[in-house]
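ASSEMBLY PREDICTION REQUEST
Request ID: AP-0331
Submitted by: J.K., bench scientist
Number of chains: two
Total residues: 228
Priority: normal
Notes: Please return the full assembly, not individual chains.
Input sequences:
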Amino acid sequence: AAGVIQSPRHLIKEKRETATLKCYPIPRHDTVYWYQQGPGQDPQFLISFYEKMQSDKGSIPDRFSAQQFSDYHSELNMSSLELGDSALYFCASSFGTGSYNSPLHFGNGTRLTVT
Amino acid sequence: SQELEQSPQSLIVQEGKNLTINCTSSKTLYGLYWYKQKYGEGLIFLMMLQKGGEEKSHEKITAKLDEKKQQSSLHITASQPSHAGIYLCGADIEASGTYKYIFGTGTRLKVLA
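STATUS: Completed
Returned structure:
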């Protein structure tokens, strides 16, 4: 079965550069979530989209922005990268949101290293 | 304080031992999910519980939902090194008139061979 696809798998950037992470949800899933997991830490929720509209916002820095496109894929744009942005970025997708009781399915993550 | 608390935060057990991880919500639960993450890999969905008293099993892992206590427990029988990782609970909760999805604080499990 198709899973959540994230690209790239690995990304190395320098400080102050920009990065774009992509997430392709499972077909027919309309909700996408982004999480950031620092070394040795639990995943932290960044932002989510339902039907191409932002549905919830977590601890996403102002330097980051995200959107969900008409084909439901999502992109996380990160600017003015800092060393502390080095982390594993997970994307998850589900069908519906909140009360629909749909589990999240996660991608394998994009490992971002900022040097 | 966290809306979804897990305990313990970390756990080291000897191979073959049983263990239990708890997930407690401060809000009404509308669905409780358990995930496992192997270190450095993606989160894997284990099981979903929706009704009070519901119990589900996946291989040697059993999860129960106590609706009254707004708590779920994940029990691993005869633990193996392959069970090591981070266990996260997720839940649909109602907050300020809307539903949202949150994660628990996570439990790091290490199984010694």
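REVIEWER COMMENTS: The radius of gyration of chain A is 13 Å.
SIGN-OFF: pending second reviewer
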